[in-house]
Amino acid sequence: MGGVFRFLTAGESHGEALTAVIDGVPAGLPLTEADINGDLARRQRGYGRGGRMKIERDQVHILSGVRWGATLGSPITLSIANRDWENWKATMGVAVPEAGAAKKEVTRPRPGHADLAGAMKYGHRDIRNVLERSSARETTARVAVAGVAKRLLAEFGISILSHVTEIGGVRIGELDISLDELARRAEASEVRCVDPAAEAAIIAKIDDAKAKGDTLGGVFEVVALGCPVGLGSYVQWDRRLDGRLAQAFSSIQAIKGCEFGLGFETARRPGSGVHDEILFDAAHGFRRSTNNAGGLEGGVTNGQPVVVRAAMKPLSTLRTPLRSVDLATKEAVEAVVERSDVCAVPAAGIVGEAMMAIVLADAFLEKFGGDGLDEIRHNHRAYLDSLKSW
Ligand code: EPS
After folding, report:
1. What integer pLDDT is reported at residue 2 of this predicted model?
2. Domain 6-387 in CATH: superfamily?
């Protein structure tokens, strides 16, 4: 993904490890494994998470591209070991196992997961060959990659926060709080919800879903602060930053919708109730009366916070399974029950932060690119100085 900041992830949910290789990180960026481990821990939290999160203690191991605490400009390889691998060595081993090894074959596809379409696409009669990679476990690697992207963005005053705005139909109320307070409350909440009344109702909803063997989805919001005017471009369809963010957010497992700023509500209001009027004063220069655009106009950042929300479907593994058909016998059966979460919306918000960081790092390097951090600092400063004349 991306033109400058490029990466690939690899690894199966119960394989030995999740890995990623990043290309395009400039030399001279201070980077340690601790810079990445904080978000890996945040991704594991959330009321409603399943048993796997009691097994894993996700931590990254940097295998290349960093020397004495700073990047070299060469590809950075990241690895997060799966502690659960100990229990899956035979089932997920590279070599053909001895006779009698537990294959843990899956032939009853879950509605809503990649199971059936993936099995047909790749010719897998054992759906385990699909679900091991389609699993949300893969997001562990993306969060690790984003730890590097966030470290780069932090050098230029760009930070990212997330919070949950809705789970199971329970929405937060209108709150007039600062973004700092919003971030503080999100970190302190088991469901990353900044509205205490909604948080209690959400937790009750999750308990109810769990008791019924059901699952819940919801909506999370990601906000990027400190972006300069001018990231992205209007000159070509695939350079518009909202389009790139939409692809990134929609590619997160279980996401079915994505919106910017006021989002779908803009479709219901007249222009006079949507567009952010332009103001100017000597002290602040150009500024806006509102931020309904979510920091993006014409596919270009306009200097306001970049605001993206995404809708996550309820997880596809139900303990009260839905109807399915056995691939081997074609009999009507109940879908397989794999270990799973009841609700992972808070965790998905951390993955949303990751995708925001990755896209913004790519757009940032596209505009201020250089091989070394000092060169980028020079380019960035020259541009900010040029804006002072506006
Ligand atoms: C997840 C790891 C998975 C699931 C979950 C999230 O681990 P396991 O399959 O061993 O339980 O718990 O993934 C899903 C629910 C899914 O449907 O993909 C993780 O690390 O976030």
Report:
1. 57
2. Chorismate synthase AroC (3.60.150.10)
Give residue limits of the domains in the chain. Answer: 6-387
Exposure on the CB side of residue 163, measured as CA atoms within 13 A: 23
- DSSP letters, 294-306, are TTEETTEE-SSPE
pTM given for the model: 0.97
Contact 192, 163 (CB under 8 A): yes
Tokens of 127: 């759906």
Output the CA–CA distances (angstroms, integers) from residue 93 to 56, 102, 115, 221, in the order listed: 19, 11, 21, 39
Provide the β-strand partners of residue 222: 162, 308
Burial 260-299 (b: 16+ CB within 10 A, else e): bbbbeebeeeeeeebbbeeeeeeeeeeebeebbbbbbbeb
> Looking at residue 268, what DSSP letter applies?
G
User: 171 exposed, middle or buried (CB, 10 Å; 0-12, 13-18, 19+)?
Assistant: middle
With a Cβ cut-off of 6 Å, ligand 1 is lined by 13, 50, 52, 84, 135-137, 139-140, 253, 315-317, 338-341
Residue closest via CA to ligand 1's atom 18 equals 135
Name the one residue in this structure whose structure tokens are 């995708």.
355
For 156-197, write each residue's pLDDT tens digit: 999 999 999 999 999 999 999 999 999 999 999 999 999 999
pLDDT (tens digit per residue) in 357-377: 999 999 999 999 899 999 999
Can you tell me which atom of ligand 1 is nearest the CA of 253?
18
Q: Write the pLDDT tens digit of every residue in 33-43.
A: 999 999 999 99
Nearest to residue 315, comparing CAs of 54, 110, 53, 106? 110
Residue closest by Cα to atom 1 of ligand 1? 137
Place of tokens 């890996």: 40
